[in-house]
Design a protein that fits this description.
heterodimer; A: mainly alpha; Non-ribosomal Peptide Synthetase Peptidyl Carrier Protein, Chain A; B: 151 residues; mainly beta; seven-stranded antiparallel beta sheet; 2 helices; 38% strand; globular
């Protein structure tokens, strides 16, 4: 499984969504499961998958499926 | 280092008051790790006359509340969190026996993780040495959690 697949799997697992929902429209609070609790669960899931520890500013900036990859690239995750 | 909190001292670490204060004493708390204590139950509890007439039994929701209040003490005794309000996020509870007048509900709450304003923990309530209720709990301090959310 490459990093793109791992990234997608994290969203699908945490938010209980399908692959066809992974698009640029997927943002914080755009679906019911991406609420405050879901956001923390996603951060924890990604930290576990990629063995990283996100800084506070990056947790705040991680506002969408699309921009999240840019955030993770700061921690050496390559897509 | 562990310490105890009497009936007045514990009020500094969780905001509930009569008739919703569901813990009497914290016998031992280690901030950020665990809290233990108890609630003594008598026929004078406000809910027993109506829950239920002739068969008094502490409502399950209040048993869960007692577990959550003890977990809150384990959270808010950490440095800088005294007096903070907590909110429940998600609880899964199992009730195993009735909790009745004359019982002492002994409560043990343990923090499994505390991060970014969210606590995941577990609580167990005992009466007469047997498990009466147990719960997996997720509690937050909204003031902290909100600092980590996308704007």
């Amino acid at each position: 499984m490459d990093n793109n697949q791992k990234y997608d799997a994290a969203f699908m697992t945490v938010f209980e969504i399908n692959a066809d929902q992974l698009n640029d429209e997927l943002k914080y609070q755009s679906i019911t499961t991406w609420d405050s609790v879901g956001h923390m669960a996603l951060m924890a899931e990604l930290e576990g998958i990629f063995d990283i520890m996100l800084e506070m500013d990056d947790v705040v900036d991680f506002g969408s499926y699309a921009t999240g990859k840019t955030t993770l690239e700061k921690y050496g995750v390559r897509f | 280092m562990a310490f105890s909190l009497d009936c007045e001292e514990l009020k500094a670490y969780q905001p509930n008051r009569f008739p919703f204060l569901m813990i009497d004493v914290v016998t031992e708390v280690e901030p950020g790790k665990y809290a233990k204590g108890y609630k003594n139950l008598t026929n004078n509890e406000w809910y027993f006359p109506m829950h239920f007439p002739g068969a008094p039994n502490m409502p399950g929701a209040l048993q869960l509340e007692a577990l959550a209040q003890m977990l809150t003490v384990a959270i808010t005794t950490q440095e800088g969190l005294k007096g903070k309000v907590t909110h429940a996020l998600e609880h899964t509870v199992r009730f195993r026996k009735e909790v009745r007048p004359g019982d002492q509900l002994v409560i043990e709450a343990t923090i499994n993780s505390w991060r970014r304003g969210v606590c995941v923990g577990r609580g167990v309530g005992y009466t007469n040495g047997e498990v009466a209720c147990e719960a997996k709990m997720m509690i937050t301090i909204p003031d902290i959690l909100e600092q980590y959310l996308p704007k």
